[in-house]
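Quick log. Single chain, no ligands specified.
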Amino acid sequence: MRRPSADAPEGATPRSLHEQLIAGIRERIVSGALREGAKVPEGALCAAFGVSRTPLREALKALAVEGFVELVPNRGAVVVPLDPTRLAEVFEAKGGLEHFIGLHAARRITDAEIAALDALHRALHDACARADAQGYTALNERIHADLAAAARNELICDIYKRLQTNILRARLLVNVDQVRMEQSLREHDAIMAALRARARLDLAERLEEHNATTGAAILLALSAPTAS
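-> predicted structure:
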């Protein structure tokens, strides 16, 4: 049910509304509903979310910081195309964080958290078997977020989350390829084996290699010529 047209729906704080708007617009960009280079339709989004332009524009400012949109004078917000150079830098930076996460998560994660990750990993296998690219991508994001949280370093976790957000849109480029999805799943199998064994050096190496392989696959997909 649509919310009433207001800056803050009943029962929602301004902060929760802000987060909901950011997530909703981001999802439209990631899914392709808002296409690269297209002007963000503020009027249509205000109607869809039941809000005025003020909270919508605040959400667009946050998405500009994340790199999803660009605020163009006299034109409004425009969806930013994926930039291979920028993505390569993101993956390079994320590789160092993956190594850190592997070293510390292996020592600090609880048995209950490993069990929860095992359940997500089984769901990842199911998504791959169904060739469910969107489901696989969502589970993949959650698994990596939980591993980052298990490192027990809030600063690293916050930086990691921002970097992951930068590549979320690009992940679907490779996850729609069943061959790459199956390769990614094998990499996740190795990551989980190292985690269960609490083999910190092996886990760090597996996570770093998985990040590098994913980055290479995404950059290759972006460089491929598109059909006319």
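The first strand starts at residue 69 and ends at 72.
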